[in-house]
Write a structure and sequence with these properties.
mainly alpha; about 60% helix; globular; DNA binding; Cro/C1-type_HTH
């Protein structure tokens, strides 16, 4: 899945997803983490283990 596809699925901007992917964000909202995990069909704990 591309960042663009993930952005469309989650409503999270491509730039924000890019920052998350590259660990350029200190904190991420739990709701955002849940949207991303749901779109990837994975448990949130698997996608964001911290």
């Amino acid at each position: 899945m591309t960042l663009k596809q993930l952005s469309i699925s989650t409503g999270v901007s491509v730039s924000e997803l890019n920052k998350i992917e590259n660990n350029d964000v200190k904190d991420i909202y739990y709701s955002t983490a849940c949207k991303i995990a749901k779109a990837l069909k994975l448990p949130v704990e698997t996608v964001f283990p911290y």
